[in-house]
Amino acid sequence: MRLLVAHSNMIYETVAGLGPAGVHAAHSTLIELAKAVARQRVDDAEPQLAPALAQAAKDLADSHLADPELSGTMLARELNVSVRNLQRAFAATGEPVTAYIRRRRLEEARLALTVPSGRLSVSELAAHWQFADSSHFIRAFKKHYGRTPTEYARSAMSAGN
Question: Would the keyword Iron-sulfur be found if you checked this record's keyword annotation (predicted)?
Answer without folding.
Answer: no
